[in-house]
Each structure stands twice: as structure tokens, then as C-alpha cells.
Here is the input.
Amino acid sequence: DRVLVEAGWAKPYGDLAQDYTETTSGFGASDGLELGFRWRHHFSRTISLSPAFHFVDYRNFTSTGSDIGDYRISSSSLRYTLELMIIQGEESSSARPFLAFSGGWYRNRVIGYNKTLVVPFDESVNTLGFAARGGVRLGLFELSAVYSLNRFDTVRYFNAGVNESYNWDNFGVRAGWIIPFSDGAH
Here is the structure.
């Protein structure tokens, strides 16, 4: 078993990245930071399963409204997942490529104002999310690219009483460190 800590960059897509003032469902989020933690259990030298937690904090949309002054729209996501990883190469290899697939519970949060800048709100939506990740392990480090599928329907955001579909997909790049107190961490 191994414990990993991860940090990375996340680029939002879909409604999450669309302009807040020019679209009906855009949040105006921009590239942000992703932090994570996972415990990896190996079933063999090539297959492992990992419960994981990741926090994605996108950069806020900021602007000025005529009646309310400066305001911001903050978007973030908590992700509780289970990841299946397939890794190639021998344990003694200096570079081992891998593919991983995960699914789990995503909690998407927005803090800000509705589109008319009248009603402030702090709302979260829970949904199922999925991700695919590929990369390489270099000793105690992992470098990877990940695409997360994060789509859901809700009435909680901008148009109260109307169920709307949202796309919060994102692409990211992560660096992970295998904490060396684990046995056989190479």
C-alpha cells in the first residue's frame, strides 16, 4: 500500500469557463489549483485501487456591478473518488507508464450573485463524476494528465425553479509524490 499527495493545475471547460456576464449559465472561472491525497492498494505489480480526495479551486470571476460595487463568483469542486490504475514495466524500472480511470462523488460549489446581481447565494450540487488519467511514475514521483467529466442538472444556481444542465468538465496536469514511509515505494 502507498500514500500519495498530489498537486496540479486545472483548466475549466463548458459552462464553468464561459463568460459570466455574456452567457446565461457561464461562471467565468479560469485556471486554478488542484490538491489531492490518495491511498493506493496494490492487487498485483500492475493493478491497484485507490480511494482519493481532490480539491479543485478555480480562479474567481471578478467584476463591478452598478448597484453592488465589486463582486466575485467563486467556483470549486470537492471530489471523492475510487481510481483503478494499470501500470506497466518492472518495479525496478526508472520510468513506468500508467493509465487510470476513476469515478465518484463530486461536490460543485458556487459562491456569488445570480445573473441579475440581485440575490447573493452559496450553493452546492452533488453529482457523479468520472476521470481518465495517463502518465508516468519516476521513482517516488508521478506526472500525469487528467480529464474529468463533471456534468449535472440543478435548479440551485442562476435560474431558481428551472432545472438546467451544466458542464463543469476540466483538464489538468498533476504531480504526485509517494510518501516514502510506505514499504517498497519504488
